[in-house]
Specification:
about 130 residues; mainly alpha
Length: about 130
């Protein structure tokens, strides 16, 4: 691919980065199904734009780490929603909630590791392409 093509990839990645950052902020400020859908769409677009810059494997690993983290959060949140309507919390419910919280913590650590690896690949690609971010 010529350097103009790489410049286009970087430009598209920058736009996707802005979109995913905005969508994530919106979702965290107001976690609704609509803001969640926008965050998921922006995340997929970001991954699609990331892959040609850092490679399919690295982008997939980053995406998979993110997916596992979001799934763990969803499981925890569903249980919390279910338990919030109950008058008391049984020992088994408390144990399950603690386990799901631990799963979220573990998934976050995995995602953070994939994010560091992705950033390293992104930095190397930027250096190789003469991109200064």
């Amino acid at each position: 691919m010529n350097s103009k093509g790489r410049e286009d990839l970087w430009h598209e990645l920058a736009e996707a980065t802005g979109a995913v950052t905005t969508a994530m902020s919106d979702y965290l400020a107001a976690p609704t199904p609509q803001t969640r859908a926008r965050m998921e769409t922006a995340s997929r677009d970001y991954i699609d734009r990331l892959a040609p810059v850092i490679g399919e494997k690295a982008a997939f690993e980053f995406q998979d780490g993110w997916r596992l983290y979001i799934q763990a959060i969803d499981r925890r949140d569903r249980l919390q929603a279910t338990l919030s309507g109950q008058p008391y919390l049984s020992a088994a419910d408390s144990e399950l909630l603690d386990r799901l919280k631990s799963e979220v913590d573990s998934a976050l650590k995995v995602f953070e590791a994939t994010a560091v690896a992705m950033q390293t690949r992104l930095d190397k690609a930027a250096h190789a392409d003469g991109q200064y971010r």
